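I am writing to request your help with a piece of structural work I have in hand. I set the record out below, with my sincere thanks for your time.
___
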Amino acid sequence: HISAANNHPFKINAGTGNSYLQGNAVYLSAANDAERYLDGIKDGAVNLYYDGSKKFETTSIGATVTSILKVQGAEGGHAELWLQADEGDDNADNWLLYHDASNNKIKFANKTSGSYVDKLILDSSGVLNVTDSGKFTAGSSDDLQIYHDGSDSYIYNATGTLYIRTTRGGLLNAAGTEWGVLHTENGAVELYYDGV
């Protein structure tokens, strides 16, 4: 039934049943249509408003958020954004972008193996990490690849010439304390043994 009660000018109470508000266009707004809350248009969009300004709109391909979309985790929990292609019916269709609350890192994870495994990690100091056997690639055919397989590291160039340009540079030991080869522009190329 529809009634007025307790100083509320309009009230719908379906008891234990369902309530329906039907029409080709349904609008919820403040008195005198001074401020819109929600629009529902047949064969069209559903719009949500904040303080009279449209913030969310359904479209034929999904939805549009105007300005900022905030994803907030619970206290001590991750903030997560789930991405599913092709209805998410295969494991590889599923990606997860999340802010890991335990270490303050942004992570991309994929579910190809049946559970989510981190593939790309960005920490708060700006360090970007690709997990073992993940690759940084360039070129339409992945012509340049930089990767680590868990044991060794590789720079692989599959086409043309690999150029490393510098006015001074060369090869150092892992500790960065001894030169093996040192090149200086307009000068010598020096070879070292045990740093000498």
